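seq/struct pair 1
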Amino acid sequence: MSENWNIRTKLVHKGSRRSQYGELSEAIFLTQGFVYDSAEQAEKRFQDLGEDEYIYARYGNPTTRMFEDRIAALEGAEDAFATASGMAAVNGALMALLKAGDHVVSSRALFGSCLYVLEDVLARFGVEITLVDGRDLAAWEAAIRPDTAAVFLESVSNPTLEVIDLKAVCDLAHAQGALVVVDNVFATPIYSYALKCGADLVVYSTTKHVDGQGRCLGGVVLGKRELIRGPVEAYLKHTGGAMSPFNAWVMLKSMETMDLRVRAQSATALAMAEALEGHPALNTVAYPQLPSHPQHDLAMQQMGIGGTVLTIDVKGGKDAAFKFLNALEIFTISNNFADAKSIVTHPATTTHQRLPDAQKAEIGITPGLIRVSCGLEDSTDLIADLLAGLDSI
Protein backbone atom coordinates (compact mmCIF):
# COMPACT_ATOMS: atom_id res chain seq x y z
CA MET A 1 0.00 0.00 0.00
CA SER A 2 2.83 2.40 0.83
CA GLU A 3 4.00 2.21 -2.80
CA ASN A 4 0.87 4.21 -3.71
CA TRP A 5 1.57 7.01 -1.25
CA ASN A 6 2.01 10.48 -2.68
CA ILE A 7 5.29 12.39 -2.48
CA ARG A 8 4.74 14.25 0.80
CA THR A 9 3.66 11.10 2.61
CA LYS A 10 6.73 9.20 1.38
CA LEU A 11 8.98 12.07 2.44
CA VAL A 12 7.73 11.82 6.02
CA HIS A 13 7.40 8.06 6.52
CA LYS A 14 9.28 5.86 4.03
CA GLY A 15 12.30 3.96 5.29
CA SER A 16 11.55 4.57 8.98
CA ARG A 17 13.10 2.17 11.48
CA ARG A 18 12.28 2.29 15.19
CA SER A 19 14.39 0.86 17.97
CA GLN A 20 13.00 -1.01 20.97
CA TYR A 21 12.35 2.39 22.59
CA GLY A 22 9.68 3.38 20.06
CA GLU A 23 11.04 6.87 19.34
CA LEU A 24 8.88 9.16 17.18
CA SER A 25 11.70 11.00 15.42
CA GLU A 26 14.28 8.95 13.56
CA ALA A 27 17.18 7.98 15.80
CA ILE A 28 20.80 8.95 15.17
CA PHE A 29 23.01 5.89 15.46
CA LEU A 30 26.17 7.89 15.95
CA THR A 31 28.57 4.97 16.04
CA GLN A 32 31.45 3.93 13.83
CA GLY A 33 31.20 0.21 14.63
CA PHE A 34 28.93 -2.56 15.90
CA VAL A 35 29.38 -5.43 18.36
CA TYR A 36 28.54 -9.12 18.10
CA ASP A 37 27.15 -11.61 20.58
CA SER A 38 29.85 -14.13 19.70
CA ALA A 39 32.83 -14.76 17.47
CA GLU A 40 30.61 -17.03 15.39
CA GLN A 41 28.11 -14.22 14.82
CA ALA A 42 30.91 -11.86 13.76
CA GLU A 43 32.22 -14.44 11.30
CA LYS A 44 28.76 -15.01 9.84
CA ARG A 45 28.04 -11.32 9.45
CA PHE A 46 31.28 -10.74 7.53
CA GLN A 47 30.48 -13.71 5.30
CA ASP A 48 26.86 -12.82 4.55
CA LEU A 49 25.54 -9.46 5.71
CA GLY A 50 21.79 -9.79 6.26
CA GLU A 51 19.03 -7.20 6.06
CA ASP A 52 19.40 -4.59 8.81
CA GLU A 53 22.76 -5.99 9.88
CA TYR A 54 25.81 -3.74 10.11
CA ILE A 55 29.53 -4.10 10.71
CA TYR A 56 31.07 -0.65 10.17
CA ALA A 57 29.68 2.82 9.43
CA ARG A 58 31.72 3.09 6.23
CA TYR A 59 29.75 0.07 4.97
CA GLY A 60 26.35 1.02 6.38
CA ASN A 61 24.49 2.41 9.39
CA PRO A 62 20.81 2.27 10.48
CA THR A 63 20.33 6.04 10.21
CA THR A 64 22.04 6.19 6.83
CA ARG A 65 19.99 3.23 5.66
CA MET A 66 16.76 5.02 6.58
CA PHE A 67 17.83 7.94 4.41
CA GLU A 68 18.81 5.65 1.52
CA ASP A 69 15.47 3.83 1.67
CA ARG A 70 13.48 7.05 1.84
CA ILE A 71 15.13 8.77 -1.10
CA ALA A 72 15.06 5.55 -3.15
CA ALA A 73 11.29 5.31 -2.54
CA LEU A 74 10.87 8.94 -3.62
CA GLU A 75 12.96 8.44 -6.76
CA GLY A 76 11.38 5.09 -7.66
CA ALA A 77 14.81 3.42 -7.49
CA GLU A 78 15.50 -0.11 -6.31
CA ASP A 79 18.30 1.03 -4.01
CA ALA A 80 20.60 3.90 -3.04
CA PHE A 81 24.03 4.49 -1.50
CA ALA A 82 24.51 7.70 0.49
CA THR A 83 27.82 9.53 0.07
CA ALA A 84 29.83 12.21 1.84
CA SER A 85 29.09 14.86 -0.82
CA GLY A 86 27.59 15.30 -4.26
CA MET A 87 30.99 15.04 -5.87
CA ALA A 88 31.67 11.81 -3.94
CA ALA A 89 28.50 10.51 -5.62
CA VAL A 90 29.62 11.62 -9.10
CA ASN A 91 33.16 10.30 -8.66
CA GLY A 92 31.94 7.07 -7.03
CA ALA A 93 29.39 6.30 -9.73
CA LEU A 94 31.87 6.83 -12.55
CA MET A 95 34.90 5.19 -10.94
CA ALA A 96 32.81 2.16 -9.94
CA LEU A 97 31.81 1.52 -13.55
CA LEU A 98 34.97 2.39 -15.47
CA LYS A 99 38.48 1.04 -16.03
CA ALA A 100 41.52 1.98 -18.09
CA GLY A 101 40.79 1.81 -21.81
CA ASP A 102 37.06 2.55 -21.47
CA HIS A 103 35.36 5.30 -23.44
CA VAL A 104 32.97 7.86 -21.93
CA VAL A 105 30.76 10.36 -23.76
CA SER A 106 29.60 13.38 -21.79
CA SER A 107 27.83 16.65 -22.38
CA ARG A 108 30.33 19.50 -22.24
CA ALA A 109 28.16 21.93 -20.26
CA LEU A 110 28.90 20.66 -16.74
CA PHE A 111 29.69 21.87 -13.25
CA GLY A 112 33.40 22.65 -12.96
CA SER A 113 34.17 19.78 -10.56
CA CYS A 114 32.39 17.29 -12.83
CA LEU A 115 34.59 18.42 -15.71
CA TYR A 116 37.63 17.94 -13.46
CA VAL A 117 36.64 14.34 -12.63
CA LEU A 118 36.21 13.57 -16.32
CA GLU A 119 39.09 15.47 -17.92
CA ASP A 120 41.71 15.21 -15.17
CA VAL A 121 40.96 12.23 -12.93
CA LEU A 122 39.46 9.67 -15.32
CA ALA A 123 41.68 10.71 -18.22
CA ARG A 124 44.74 10.32 -16.01
CA PHE A 125 43.71 6.72 -15.34
CA GLY A 126 43.39 5.89 -19.03
CA VAL A 127 39.71 6.55 -19.70
CA GLU A 128 39.02 8.22 -23.04
CA ILE A 129 36.63 11.17 -22.76
CA THR A 130 34.55 12.68 -25.57
CA LEU A 131 32.62 15.89 -24.84
CA VAL A 132 29.63 16.86 -26.98
CA ASP A 133 26.98 19.57 -27.17
CA GLY A 134 24.34 17.91 -25.02
CA ARG A 135 21.48 19.57 -26.90
CA ASP A 136 22.55 17.99 -30.21
CA LEU A 137 21.26 14.42 -30.57
CA ALA A 138 23.26 13.96 -33.77
CA ALA A 139 26.43 14.73 -31.80
CA TRP A 140 25.53 12.09 -29.19
CA GLU A 141 24.81 9.53 -31.90
CA ALA A 142 28.11 10.22 -33.65
CA ALA A 143 30.14 10.07 -30.42
CA ILE A 144 28.67 6.94 -28.78
CA ARG A 145 30.55 3.89 -30.07
CA PRO A 146 30.28 0.14 -29.57
CA ASP A 147 33.15 0.39 -27.05
CA THR A 148 31.55 3.27 -25.10
CA ALA A 149 31.20 2.09 -21.51
CA ALA A 150 29.25 5.00 -20.06
CA VAL A 151 27.46 8.23 -20.86
CA PHE A 152 27.42 11.08 -18.35
CA LEU A 153 25.34 14.24 -18.34
CA GLU A 154 23.53 16.79 -16.24
CA SER A 155 19.82 16.59 -17.07
CA VAL A 156 19.76 20.39 -16.70
CA SER A 157 23.24 21.88 -16.96
CA ASN A 158 24.93 23.92 -14.24
CA PRO A 159 24.85 26.88 -14.61
CA THR A 160 23.63 27.48 -18.17
CA LEU A 161 20.34 25.55 -17.76
CA GLU A 162 20.62 23.60 -20.99
CA VAL A 163 18.00 20.83 -21.05
CA ILE A 164 18.93 17.49 -22.60
CA ASP A 165 16.52 15.06 -24.25
CA LEU A 166 17.23 12.37 -21.70
CA LYS A 167 15.15 9.54 -23.12
CA ALA A 168 16.68 9.96 -26.56
CA VAL A 169 20.23 9.95 -25.14
CA CYS A 170 19.46 6.88 -23.00
CA ASP A 171 18.11 5.06 -26.06
CA LEU A 172 21.25 5.91 -28.06
CA ALA A 173 23.53 4.79 -25.24
CA HIS A 174 21.71 1.55 -24.52
CA ALA A 175 21.68 0.65 -28.21
CA GLN A 176 25.49 0.50 -27.97
CA GLY A 177 25.52 -1.23 -24.59
CA ALA A 178 26.62 1.84 -22.59
CA LEU A 179 25.36 2.70 -19.11
CA VAL A 180 23.90 6.16 -18.45
CA VAL A 181 24.84 8.18 -15.35
CA VAL A 182 22.79 11.36 -14.77
CA ASP A 183 23.52 14.23 -12.40
CA ASN A 184 19.94 15.25 -11.69
CA VAL A 185 20.41 17.98 -9.10
CA PHE A 186 18.76 20.84 -11.02
CA ALA A 187 15.70 18.70 -11.75
CA THR A 188 15.48 18.03 -7.97
CA PRO A 189 14.19 14.77 -6.45
CA ILE A 190 10.71 16.34 -6.48
CA TYR A 191 10.52 16.75 -10.27
CA SER A 192 12.89 13.91 -11.14
CA TYR A 193 12.36 12.00 -14.36
CA ALA A 194 15.79 10.44 -15.01
CA LEU A 195 14.99 6.83 -14.12
CA LYS A 196 11.71 6.97 -16.05
CA CYS A 197 13.71 8.07 -19.11
CA GLY A 198 16.05 5.10 -18.77
CA ALA A 199 19.03 6.33 -16.72
CA ASP A 200 20.96 3.50 -15.06
CA LEU A 201 22.35 5.59 -12.21
CA VAL A 202 21.16 8.94 -10.86
CA VAL A 203 23.32 11.09 -8.61
CA TYR A 204 22.42 14.05 -6.40
CA SER A 205 24.22 16.48 -4.21
CA THR A 206 21.87 16.23 -1.23
CA THR A 207 23.60 19.36 0.07
CA LYS A 208 21.25 21.15 -2.31
CA HIS A 209 17.47 20.67 -2.21
CA VAL A 210 17.44 17.71 0.20
CA ASP A 211 19.10 19.51 3.10
CA GLY A 212 18.48 22.82 1.37
CA GLN A 213 19.31 24.83 4.48
CA GLY A 214 23.07 25.23 4.26
CA ARG A 215 24.03 22.81 7.02
CA CYS A 216 25.52 19.57 5.74
CA LEU A 217 27.34 18.09 2.78
CA GLY A 218 25.89 14.94 1.30
CA GLY A 219 25.25 12.99 -1.87
CA VAL A 220 23.54 9.86 -3.09
CA VAL A 221 23.74 7.37 -5.98
CA LEU A 222 20.47 5.68 -6.96
CA GLY A 223 19.55 2.94 -9.42
CA LYS A 224 19.09 -0.80 -9.82
CA ARG A 225 20.08 -2.89 -6.82
CA GLU A 226 22.59 -4.95 -8.80
CA LEU A 227 24.56 -1.78 -9.59
CA ILE A 228 24.13 -0.06 -6.22
CA ARG A 229 24.95 -3.08 -4.04
CA GLY A 230 27.48 -4.32 -6.58
CA PRO A 231 30.17 -2.05 -8.04
CA VAL A 232 28.94 1.22 -6.48
CA GLU A 233 28.86 -0.05 -2.90
CA ALA A 234 32.11 -1.95 -3.34
CA TYR A 235 33.95 1.15 -4.57
CA LEU A 236 32.48 3.62 -2.09
CA LYS A 237 32.74 1.52 1.05
CA HIS A 238 36.38 0.65 0.39
CA THR A 239 37.44 4.17 -0.60
CA GLY A 240 35.69 5.99 2.24
CA GLY A 241 33.01 7.99 0.44
CA ALA A 242 30.13 7.11 2.78
CA MET A 243 27.82 9.67 4.39
CA SER A 244 28.13 10.25 8.13
CA PRO A 245 25.19 9.11 10.29
CA PHE A 246 24.68 12.64 11.63
CA ASN A 247 24.42 14.10 8.12
CA ALA A 248 22.06 11.27 7.15
CA TRP A 249 19.82 12.24 10.09
CA VAL A 250 19.82 15.89 8.98
CA MET A 251 18.86 14.80 5.46
CA LEU A 252 16.05 12.61 6.82
CA LYS A 253 14.54 15.46 8.80
CA SER A 254 14.96 17.86 5.87
CA MET A 255 13.07 15.55 3.54
CA GLU A 256 9.92 16.08 5.57
CA THR A 257 9.68 19.64 4.21
CA MET A 258 11.46 19.24 0.86
CA ASP A 259 8.34 19.09 -1.31
CA LEU A 260 6.96 22.25 0.30
CA ARG A 261 10.27 24.07 -0.01
CA VAL A 262 11.05 23.10 -3.60
CA ARG A 263 7.60 23.96 -4.89
CA ALA A 264 7.68 27.35 -3.18
CA GLN A 265 11.18 28.08 -4.53
CA SER A 266 10.15 27.06 -8.05
CA ALA A 267 7.14 29.39 -7.93
CA THR A 268 9.44 32.23 -6.86
CA ALA A 269 11.90 31.42 -9.65
CA LEU A 270 9.16 31.65 -12.28
CA ALA A 271 7.86 34.97 -10.90
CA MET A 272 11.42 36.29 -10.84
CA ALA A 273 12.19 35.17 -14.40
CA GLU A 274 9.00 36.76 -15.72
CA ALA A 275 9.74 40.02 -13.89
CA LEU A 276 13.31 40.23 -15.22
CA GLU A 277 12.80 39.11 -18.82
CA GLY A 278 13.26 42.03 -21.20
CA HIS A 279 14.97 44.27 -18.64
CA PRO A 280 17.19 46.78 -20.51
CA ALA A 281 20.23 46.00 -18.30
CA LEU A 282 20.16 42.30 -19.27
CA ASN A 283 21.21 40.47 -22.41
CA THR A 284 19.21 37.35 -21.50
CA VAL A 285 17.16 35.66 -18.80
CA ALA A 286 17.32 31.86 -18.92
CA TYR A 287 14.73 29.74 -17.14
CA PRO A 288 13.30 26.51 -18.59
CA GLN A 289 9.69 27.47 -17.86
CA LEU A 290 9.92 30.67 -19.91
CA PRO A 291 8.62 30.15 -23.47
CA SER A 292 11.76 31.96 -24.67
CA HIS A 293 14.03 29.16 -23.35
CA PRO A 294 15.45 27.19 -26.32
CA GLN A 295 14.40 23.85 -24.79
CA HIS A 296 11.16 25.07 -23.18
CA ASP A 297 8.92 22.39 -24.71
CA LEU A 298 11.33 19.60 -23.78
CA ALA A 299 11.69 20.93 -20.23
CA MET A 300 7.93 21.03 -19.75
CA GLN A 301 7.60 17.53 -21.19
CA GLN A 302 10.31 16.09 -18.94
CA MET A 303 10.19 18.11 -15.72
CA GLY A 304 6.90 19.99 -16.01
CA ILE A 305 8.33 23.04 -14.26
CA GLY A 306 11.39 25.29 -14.40
CA GLY A 307 13.05 24.44 -11.08
CA THR A 308 14.57 26.69 -8.43
CA VAL A 309 17.41 28.33 -10.40
CA LEU A 310 17.58 30.86 -13.24
CA THR A 311 20.41 32.74 -14.88
CA ILE A 312 20.75 36.32 -16.05
CA ASP A 313 23.41 37.80 -18.34
CA VAL A 314 24.19 41.37 -17.35
CA LYS A 315 25.16 43.85 -20.03
CA GLY A 316 28.62 45.28 -19.42
CA GLY A 317 30.36 42.01 -18.51
CA LYS A 318 32.24 41.31 -15.30
CA ASP A 319 32.40 44.92 -14.03
CA ALA A 320 28.65 45.40 -14.36
CA ALA A 321 27.96 41.94 -12.91
CA PHE A 322 30.11 42.69 -9.84
CA LYS A 323 28.44 46.09 -9.34
CA PHE A 324 25.05 44.39 -9.49
CA LEU A 325 26.06 41.64 -7.05
CA ASN A 326 27.50 44.11 -4.56
CA ALA A 327 24.33 46.23 -4.64
CA LEU A 328 22.02 43.40 -3.54
CA GLU A 329 20.73 43.48 0.03
CA ILE A 330 18.77 40.22 0.46
CA PHE A 331 20.65 37.87 -1.84
CA THR A 332 23.77 36.20 -0.49
CA ILE A 333 26.90 35.93 -2.66
CA SER A 334 27.99 32.30 -2.43
CA ASN A 335 28.89 29.37 -4.66
CA ASN A 336 26.13 27.10 -3.30
CA PHE A 337 22.55 26.94 -4.57
CA ALA A 338 19.17 25.39 -3.70
CA ASP A 339 19.23 26.84 -0.19
CA ALA A 340 16.50 28.43 1.94
CA LYS A 341 18.47 31.67 1.50
CA SER A 342 18.51 33.17 -1.99
CA ILE A 343 22.00 33.05 -3.47
CA VAL A 344 23.76 34.68 -6.42
CA THR A 345 26.90 33.30 -8.04
CA HIS A 346 29.27 34.61 -10.72
CA PRO A 347 30.36 31.31 -12.33
CA ALA A 348 33.14 32.75 -14.51
CA THR A 349 35.16 33.78 -11.45
CA THR A 350 34.09 31.05 -9.00
CA THR A 351 32.68 27.61 -9.88
CA HIS A 352 34.11 27.63 -13.43
CA GLN A 353 37.08 29.98 -12.95
CA ARG A 354 39.71 27.31 -13.74
CA LEU A 355 38.36 26.81 -17.29
CA PRO A 356 40.14 28.57 -20.16
CA ASP A 357 38.22 31.52 -21.59
CA ALA A 358 37.59 29.66 -24.84
CA GLN A 359 36.02 26.74 -22.99
CA LYS A 360 33.89 29.09 -20.90
CA ALA A 361 32.63 30.75 -24.06
CA GLU A 362 31.91 27.38 -25.67
CA ILE A 363 29.58 26.33 -22.84
CA GLY A 364 28.00 29.76 -22.34
CA ILE A 365 29.84 31.00 -19.23
CA THR A 366 30.00 34.69 -20.18
CA PRO A 367 31.60 37.46 -18.07
CA GLY A 368 28.13 38.82 -17.29
CA LEU A 369 26.46 35.51 -16.41
CA ILE A 370 24.96 35.26 -12.92
CA ARG A 371 23.31 32.17 -11.44
CA VAL A 372 20.32 33.07 -9.27
CA SER A 373 19.14 30.48 -6.74
CA CYS A 374 15.73 31.24 -5.29
CA GLY A 375 15.21 30.74 -1.57
CA LEU A 376 12.23 30.92 0.74
CA GLU A 377 12.07 34.69 1.26
CA ASP A 378 9.06 36.66 0.06
CA SER A 379 9.12 36.73 -3.73
CA THR A 380 8.14 40.41 -3.99
CA ASP A 381 11.07 41.36 -1.73
CA LEU A 382 13.46 39.31 -3.84
CA ILE A 383 12.26 40.80 -7.12
CA ALA A 384 12.50 44.32 -5.71
CA ASP A 385 16.08 43.59 -4.58
CA LEU A 386 17.08 42.36 -8.03
CA LEU A 387 15.48 45.31 -9.80
CA ALA A 388 17.22 47.75 -7.45
CA GLY A 389 20.52 46.00 -8.14
CA LEU A 390 19.97 46.34 -11.89
CA ASP A 391 19.08 50.02 -11.46
CA SER A 392 22.49 50.53 -9.83
CA ILE A 393 24.24 49.67 -13.10
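seq/struct pair 2
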Amino acid sequence: MHLGFLNSEINNKPDEEILSSRRKFVKTAGAMISVAGLAPSVAFAAKAKEQGFNGTGRMGMSTGEDWIDTFYTGGAEAIIHYYADDFVFEDITLFQTIQDKEELYNAFLPFGKGSPAGEHQFDVLRYDGGMAGDRTAQLRTKNPGGYTDAEWQHWSHDTFLGAEYSYDEWCVMQWIWRGKHKVDFLGLPATGKTTTTRGITFHCYKDRKIVRESTYWNYRDVAIQLGAAQAPDKFWLKK
Protein backbone atom coordinates (compact mmCIF):
# COMPACT_ATOMS: atom_id res chain seq x y z
CA MET A 1 0.00 0.00 0.00
CA HIS A 2 1.39 3.41 -0.94
CA LEU A 3 1.00 5.90 1.87
CA GLY A 4 0.64 9.66 2.48
CA PHE A 5 -1.82 12.46 3.26
CA LEU A 6 -3.63 15.24 1.40
CA ASN A 7 -2.78 18.72 2.61
CA SER A 8 -5.45 19.89 5.04
CA GLU A 9 -5.78 22.08 8.08
CA ILE A 10 -4.11 19.44 10.23
CA ASN A 11 -1.23 19.18 7.80
CA ASN A 12 -0.16 22.73 8.57
CA LYS A 13 0.77 21.60 12.09
CA PRO A 14 4.20 20.24 13.06
CA ASP A 15 4.66 16.54 12.36
CA GLU A 16 4.49 15.58 16.04
CA GLU A 17 1.10 17.33 16.35
CA ILE A 18 -0.21 15.51 13.27
CA LEU A 19 0.90 12.19 14.74
CA SER A 20 -0.80 13.02 18.04
CA SER A 21 -4.00 14.12 16.29
CA ARG A 22 -4.29 10.89 14.29
CA ARG A 23 -3.64 8.77 17.40
CA LYS A 24 -6.30 10.77 19.25
CA PHE A 25 -8.78 10.21 16.41
CA VAL A 26 -8.27 6.44 16.51
CA LYS A 27 -8.80 6.34 20.27
CA THR A 28 -11.90 8.52 20.07
CA ALA A 29 -13.36 6.53 17.18
CA GLY A 30 -12.73 3.32 19.06
CA ALA A 31 -14.50 4.66 22.13
CA MET A 32 -17.49 5.78 20.03
CA ILE A 33 -17.83 2.32 18.48
CA SER A 34 -17.67 0.74 21.92
CA VAL A 35 -20.48 2.99 23.12
CA ALA A 36 -22.49 1.92 20.07
CA GLY A 37 -22.52 -1.60 21.48
CA LEU A 38 -19.68 -3.39 19.70
CA ALA A 39 -17.28 -5.67 21.51
CA PRO A 40 -14.05 -4.06 22.77
CA SER A 41 -12.00 -6.17 20.33
CA VAL A 42 -13.89 -4.54 17.46
CA ALA A 43 -13.52 -1.06 18.93
CA PHE A 44 -10.02 -0.70 17.55
CA ALA A 45 -7.36 0.66 19.93
CA ALA A 46 -10.02 2.19 22.20
CA LYS A 47 -7.82 1.78 25.28
CA ALA A 48 -5.01 3.91 23.83
CA LYS A 49 -2.39 1.15 24.17
CA GLU A 50 0.05 1.42 21.31
CA GLN A 51 0.27 -1.86 19.43
CA GLY A 52 2.01 -0.72 16.27
CA PHE A 53 5.21 -2.04 14.75
CA ASN A 54 7.29 -0.97 17.74
CA GLY A 55 4.78 -2.10 20.36
CA THR A 56 4.11 -5.41 22.05
CA GLY A 57 1.25 -7.90 22.01
CA ARG A 58 -1.16 -8.58 19.21
CA MET A 59 -1.11 -6.10 16.37
CA GLY A 60 -4.34 -4.35 15.39
CA MET A 61 -5.88 -1.17 13.99
CA SER A 62 -3.10 0.88 15.54
CA THR A 63 -0.66 -1.08 13.35
CA GLY A 64 -2.28 0.41 10.26
CA GLU A 65 -2.26 3.86 11.83
CA ASP A 66 1.39 3.44 12.78
CA TRP A 67 2.16 2.44 9.21
CA ILE A 68 0.53 5.60 7.84
CA ASP A 69 1.89 7.92 10.53
CA THR A 70 5.44 6.68 10.03
CA PHE A 71 5.30 7.17 6.30
CA TYR A 72 3.96 10.70 6.73
CA THR A 73 6.41 11.83 9.40
CA GLY A 74 9.42 9.85 8.21
CA GLY A 75 8.71 9.20 4.53
CA ALA A 76 10.12 6.37 2.44
CA GLU A 77 13.35 6.42 4.46
CA ALA A 78 11.49 5.47 7.64
CA ILE A 79 8.79 3.13 6.37
CA ILE A 80 11.17 0.68 4.66
CA HIS A 81 12.45 -0.32 8.11
CA TYR A 82 9.04 -1.87 8.82
CA TYR A 83 9.94 -4.54 6.24
CA ALA A 84 12.10 -7.54 7.09
CA ASP A 85 15.48 -7.98 5.42
CA ASP A 86 13.93 -10.80 3.37
CA PHE A 87 10.52 -9.64 2.11
CA VAL A 88 8.20 -9.52 -0.88
CA PHE A 89 6.20 -6.40 -1.74
CA GLU A 90 3.57 -6.84 -4.43
CA ASP A 91 1.21 -4.28 -5.98
CA ILE A 92 -1.01 -6.53 -8.07
CA THR A 93 -2.68 -3.64 -9.90
CA LEU A 94 0.66 -2.39 -11.22
CA PHE A 95 2.14 -5.89 -11.69
CA GLN A 96 4.92 -4.59 -9.44
CA THR A 97 6.92 -6.99 -7.27
CA ILE A 98 9.87 -5.83 -5.15
CA GLN A 99 12.34 -7.72 -2.94
CA ASP A 100 15.03 -5.05 -2.60
CA LYS A 101 14.95 -2.24 0.01
CA GLU A 102 16.41 0.35 -2.37
CA GLU A 103 13.78 -0.45 -5.00
CA LEU A 104 11.05 -0.28 -2.36
CA TYR A 105 12.34 3.13 -1.26
CA ASN A 106 12.20 4.39 -4.85
CA ALA A 107 8.68 2.98 -5.31
CA PHE A 108 7.40 4.83 -2.23
CA LEU A 109 8.94 8.22 -3.07
CA PRO A 110 6.18 9.42 -5.48
CA PHE A 111 3.55 8.93 -2.76
CA GLY A 112 5.21 10.55 0.24
CA LYS A 113 5.03 13.99 1.79
CA GLY A 114 5.95 16.78 -0.61
CA SER A 115 5.90 14.55 -3.68
CA PRO A 116 5.93 16.47 -7.00
CA ALA A 117 3.46 13.89 -8.32
CA GLY A 118 0.62 15.01 -6.06
CA GLU A 119 -0.87 15.03 -2.59
CA HIS A 120 -2.05 11.68 -1.26
CA GLN A 121 -4.15 10.54 1.67
CA PHE A 122 -4.60 6.93 2.77
CA ASP A 123 -6.99 6.01 5.59
CA VAL A 124 -7.41 2.53 7.01
CA LEU A 125 -11.09 1.56 7.32
CA ARG A 126 -10.85 -1.96 8.68
CA TYR A 127 -8.26 -4.32 10.14
CA ASP A 128 -8.75 -8.09 10.31
CA GLY A 129 -5.91 -10.25 11.54
CA GLY A 130 -4.49 -12.55 14.15
CA MET A 131 -1.69 -14.75 15.37
CA ALA A 132 -0.45 -17.47 13.03
CA GLY A 133 2.02 -19.50 15.05
CA ASP A 134 4.93 -20.27 12.75
CA ARG A 135 3.60 -20.65 9.22
CA THR A 136 4.78 -20.76 5.65
CA ALA A 137 2.69 -20.62 2.49
CA GLN A 138 1.01 -23.62 0.88
CA LEU A 139 1.36 -23.52 -2.89
CA ARG A 140 -0.24 -25.04 -5.93
CA THR A 141 2.85 -25.33 -8.07
CA LYS A 142 1.66 -27.84 -10.68
CA ASN A 143 0.12 -26.44 -13.84
CA PRO A 144 -3.60 -27.36 -13.49
CA GLY A 145 -4.11 -27.44 -17.25
CA GLY A 146 -5.58 -24.85 -19.56
CA TYR A 147 -2.33 -22.84 -19.47
CA THR A 148 0.88 -23.28 -21.38
CA ASP A 149 3.93 -23.68 -19.15
CA ALA A 150 4.98 -20.14 -20.09
CA GLU A 151 1.55 -18.72 -19.16
CA TRP A 152 1.51 -20.58 -15.85
CA GLN A 153 5.00 -19.32 -15.02
CA HIS A 154 4.06 -15.75 -15.95
CA TRP A 155 0.92 -15.57 -13.83
CA SER A 156 2.06 -17.61 -10.83
CA HIS A 157 5.68 -16.54 -10.40
CA ASP A 158 5.17 -13.43 -8.26
CA THR A 159 2.61 -15.18 -6.06
CA PHE A 160 5.10 -17.90 -5.21
CA LEU A 161 7.91 -15.51 -4.27
CA GLY A 162 8.78 -15.58 -0.58
CA ALA A 163 6.74 -18.71 0.10
CA GLU A 164 9.59 -20.01 2.27
CA TYR A 165 9.44 -16.98 4.59
CA SER A 166 7.76 -17.97 7.84
CA TYR A 167 5.31 -15.62 9.55
CA ASP A 168 3.78 -15.49 13.01
CA GLU A 169 0.96 -12.99 12.44
CA TRP A 170 -1.16 -11.80 9.54
CA CYS A 171 -3.66 -9.10 8.67
CA VAL A 172 -5.91 -7.75 5.95
CA MET A 173 -6.40 -3.98 5.89
CA GLN A 174 -9.02 -2.20 3.81
CA TRP A 175 -8.36 1.44 3.05
CA ILE A 176 -9.30 4.52 1.01
CA TRP A 177 -6.86 6.37 -1.22
CA ARG A 178 -7.61 9.98 -2.12
CA GLY A 179 -5.16 11.76 -4.37
CA LYS A 180 -4.89 15.24 -5.88
CA HIS A 181 -2.75 14.76 -8.97
CA LYS A 182 -0.10 17.21 -10.11
CA VAL A 183 0.86 15.09 -13.11
CA ASP A 184 -0.96 12.66 -15.38
CA PHE A 185 -1.53 9.27 -13.76
CA LEU A 186 -0.67 5.99 -15.51
CA GLY A 187 -1.20 7.58 -18.90
CA LEU A 188 -4.53 9.18 -17.95
CA PRO A 189 -5.13 12.97 -17.97
CA ALA A 190 -5.14 13.60 -14.22
CA THR A 191 -3.26 16.86 -13.65
CA GLY A 192 -5.18 19.08 -11.21
CA LYS A 193 -7.85 16.45 -10.58
CA THR A 194 -8.73 14.58 -7.38
CA THR A 195 -9.63 10.90 -7.39
CA THR A 196 -10.72 8.51 -4.66
CA THR A 197 -10.64 4.72 -4.66
CA ARG A 198 -10.58 1.74 -2.31
CA GLY A 199 -7.85 -0.81 -1.81
CA ILE A 200 -6.93 -3.82 0.27
CA THR A 201 -3.56 -4.96 1.64
CA PHE A 202 -2.61 -8.39 2.97
CA HIS A 203 0.36 -8.56 5.35
CA CYS A 204 2.35 -11.44 6.79
CA TYR A 205 4.49 -10.44 9.79
CA LYS A 206 7.50 -12.06 11.43
CA ASP A 207 8.71 -10.53 14.69
CA ARG A 208 6.62 -7.42 13.91
CA LYS A 209 8.22 -6.93 10.48
CA ILE A 210 6.50 -7.29 7.09
CA VAL A 211 7.72 -10.38 5.22
CA ARG A 212 4.92 -10.46 2.62
CA GLU A 213 2.70 -7.69 1.31
CA SER A 214 0.07 -8.03 -1.40
CA THR A 215 -1.91 -4.93 -2.32
CA TYR A 216 -4.76 -4.47 -4.75
CA TRP A 217 -6.52 -1.17 -5.49
CA ASN A 218 -9.38 -0.37 -7.84
CA TYR A 219 -7.76 1.20 -10.89
CA ARG A 220 -11.08 1.18 -12.76
CA ASP A 221 -12.63 3.52 -10.20
CA VAL A 222 -9.83 6.01 -10.88
CA ALA A 223 -10.24 5.63 -14.65
CA ILE A 224 -14.00 6.25 -14.35
CA GLN A 225 -13.41 9.43 -12.34
CA LEU A 226 -10.92 10.64 -14.96
CA GLY A 227 -13.37 9.94 -17.78
CA ALA A 228 -11.35 7.11 -19.29
CA ALA A 229 -13.75 4.24 -18.49
CA GLN A 230 -17.47 3.62 -18.18
CA ALA A 231 -19.16 3.04 -14.84
CA PRO A 232 -20.36 -0.58 -14.50
CA ASP A 233 -23.94 -1.50 -15.32
CA LYS A 234 -25.23 -2.90 -12.03
CA PHE A 235 -27.50 -5.41 -13.74
CA TRP A 236 -27.94 -7.46 -10.57
CA LEU A 237 -29.82 -4.72 -8.73
CA LYS A 238 -33.60 -4.82 -8.52
CA LYS A 239 -35.23 -2.21 -10.72
